[in-house]
Write a structure and sequence with these properties.
The chain is mostly helical. 70% of the residues lie in helices and 0% in strands.
Length: 79
């Protein structure tokens, strides 16, 4: 049992408290540039996705045109 004058924390707990204080002192607010980079990346990906979608549509139209010109049938897709 401990008396009023003795410390209730052991050496390991004291060391933990010191380390936690160091971490609290080093804790900084998240950098705003991270938000900017994420938004810039999201915008870039959105634009590329749109361009790729248009290219996909054009390629599908080209294939359909070639099939019509050659008089071929498109293979039917099983549902």
């Amino acid at each position: 049992m401990t008396t009023g004058g003795e410390s209730t924390t052991g050496a390991a707990e004291e060391r933990l408290m010191v380390l936690l204080e160091v971490l609290r002192a080093d804790a900084t607010r998240p950098d705003d540039s991270i938000d900017e980079r994420v938004m810039r990346t999201a915008r870039w990906q959105y634009l590329v996705r749109g361009v790729l979608s248009v290219l996909n549509d054009l390629a599908a139209l080209l294939v359909d045109g070639v099939i019509l010109m050659l008089g071929l049938r498109r293979p039917s897709r099983a549902a």
